[in-house]
Every structure is written in structure tokens, then in C-alpha cells.
């Protein structure tokens, strides 16, 4: 999709380049569309785009979104070829990573979701919410209560992410708000929480599905190593050394 201001004096050149791109790249299962930014308000809001990025070329694919902002007409075909060759990095809409994230309920954005959820080695309950969602506002103090109740447990994280301001990874099948997911410290599949939205039920769910505590695993591994060393060392050789 090529978004232009149709008042731009280069609009005919852009259209010519799009038609040529469609001709050259017709065998790659790509549809080519041209739109006036003045009628694309909802699309820009949905994709997190800015009018200052126009002229803007946007590719929507199964592998993600690809953007070429403030482009010139002669960049269109070479950039599209780079997309086809697999040389472009998908665009991810994300709020800025918070400089301070010390509240009981942690803030997750698209750019730090891997760090906090998948790579932290902790048990994470994550809520996807929308600022306009009434059910989300009702759930907010309940999540806060859960987070405060478990704040002394270093292996548990309660977090939230604005699903309207961040791209949601395809790991999560979010169809509405609020949506609650749990990822165990032991890895495995994401779990969807569909139970009652009460602090008691949420805490019970976390305790039931959490992974083993890191400290407990470390002690067990250490004991095993010590046992192996003891059992594999002949008592006679120890006496000889003495």
C-alpha cells in the first residue's frame, strides 16, 4: 500500500512507479494499492503510522509489516525487490521502554516483551488491555492486588501491555480485551487464563502453574554433583593421599 498526499506534485510519478512495480513483480503474489492519506485516518491509527512519514510504502505479510517512510519515487521498485529477497526487517509498533518500571504491575511494550516474558526465567502473568476498555479498568485494581500479594516472590511477575499501542506477537491469540496469559519459568506453552477475575483465583492459578523456583533447582543440581563426586571417588585412594 502506497500512501500519498494526492496534492503532491510527484503523485503521477509515484503512480507510474507502482504500476511498473506491479508489472515487474506480478509473479510474487503481491497486490498493489494506492491511497490518499487524507482518507486513511483509521488505517494510520491502527498500524501506528504517522502522516509525517508520507509518502509511505507499507507491506503487510505473514512475516510482519514492512515500512519505507518518506520515500522517493525511484526508491519504490528497489525497496520492493529487497523485500522479496528477504533482506528487510519487519516493523514493530512499540511504545518506548519505560525508564522506570518499579510499580507492582510491570509495564511491557513490544520492544521488551521478550526480555520480561520469555527470557526472564520467571513466572509471568501478562494482561493485554485497551485504555478504552471498561472491563480492563475493572480488572486493574485486582491485578494490582495480585502483584502486591506476590511482590516478595522474586520468581513471579505481574505485567500489562497496551494492545492498542504495541504490536502483539503472534504467540498470543488476542481477540479482545482484557486478555490474560501465563508463561511459566520452566518454559513450555503459553497458558490462557479464562477463570474468574478475582485476586484469589488468579493467585491460585499462578501457584498451580508456576515452574520450580530457581534456587531449589540450583540446590538440587549441586547435591547431585556432590553425590556423583563422592560415589565415583574410591575410598582407598583417599586413604593413600592421606
TrEMBL record:
GO molecular function: protein disulfide isomerase activity
Domain of life: Eukaryota
PROSITE patterns: THIOREDOXIN_1 (PS00194), THIOREDOXIN_2 (PS51352)
Domain Thioredoxin positions: 83-211
Entry-linked CDD domains: PDI_a_PDI_a'_C, PDI_b'_family
GO CC field: endoplasmic reticulum
One Pfam family from the record: Thioredoxin
GO terms, biological process: protein folding; response to endoplasmic reticulum stress
InterPro entries the UniProt entry points to: Thioredoxin-like_sf (IPR036249), Thioredoxin_CS (IPR017937), Thioredoxin_domain (IPR013766)
Entry similarity comment: Belongs to the protein disulfide isomerase family.
PANTHER family named in the record: PROTEIN DISULFIDE ISOMERASE, PROTEIN DISULFIDE ISOMERASE-LIKE 1-2
Protein name per Swiss-Prot or TrEMBL: Thioredoxin domain-containing protein
Amino acid at each position: 500500500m502506497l500512501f500519498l498526499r494526492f496534492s503532491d506534485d510527484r503523485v503521477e510519478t509515484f503512480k507510474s512507479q507502482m504500476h511498473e512495480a506491479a508489472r515487474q513483480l506480478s509473479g510474487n503474489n503481491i497486490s498493489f494499492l494506492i491511497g490518499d492519506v487524507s482518507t486513511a485516518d483509521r488505517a494510520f491509527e491502527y498500524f501506528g503510522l504517522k502522516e509525517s512519514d508520507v509518502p509511505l510504502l507499507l507491506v503487510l505479510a505473514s512475516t510482519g509489516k514492512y515500512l519505507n517512510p518518506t520515500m522517493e519515487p525511484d526508491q519504490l521498485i528497489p525497496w520492493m525487490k529487497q523485500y522479496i529477497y528477504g533482506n528487510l526487517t519487519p516493523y514493530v509498533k512499540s511504545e518506548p521502554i519505560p525508564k522506570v518500571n518499579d510499580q507492582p504491575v510491570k509495564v511491557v511494550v513490544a520492544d521488551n516483551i521478550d526480555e520480561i516474558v520469555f527470557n526472564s526465567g520467571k513466572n509471568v502473568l501478562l494482561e493485554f488491555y485497551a485504555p478504552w476498555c471498561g472491563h480492563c479498568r475493572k480488572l486493574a485494581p485486582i491485578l494490582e492486588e495480585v502483584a502486591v500479594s506476590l511482590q516478595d516472590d522474586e520468581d513471579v511477575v505481574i505485567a500489562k501491555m497496551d494492545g492498542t499501542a504495541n504490536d502483539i506477537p503472534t504467540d498470543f491469540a488476542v481477540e479482545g480485551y482484557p486478555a490474560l496469559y501465563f508463561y511459566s519459568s520452566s518454559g513450555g506453552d503459553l497458558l490462557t487464563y479464562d477463570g474468574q477475575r478475582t485476586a484469589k483465583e488468579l493467585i491460585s492459578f499462578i501457584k498451580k502453574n508456576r515452574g520450580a523456583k530457581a534456587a531449589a533447582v540450583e540446590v538440587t543440581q549441586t547435591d547431585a554433583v556432590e553425590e556423583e563426586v563422592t560415589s565415583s571417588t574410591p575410598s582407598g585412594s583417599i586413604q593413600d593421599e592421606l
